[in-house]
Amino acid sequence: MLAIIGALIGWFTNIIAIKLIFRPIEPIVIPILNLKVQGLIPKRREEIAKSIGEVIEEELISIEEIIDKVIEKENLSDIVFVIKRKINEVLKDRLPAIIPTTFKNIIYSYVDDLVDKEGEKILKDLAEKMVHKATTKVRLSNLVEEKINSFELERIEKIVLSVAKKELKHIEVLGGILGFLIGTIQGILVILF
Question: What's the family (predicted)?
Answer without folding.
Answer: Belongs to the UPF0754 family.
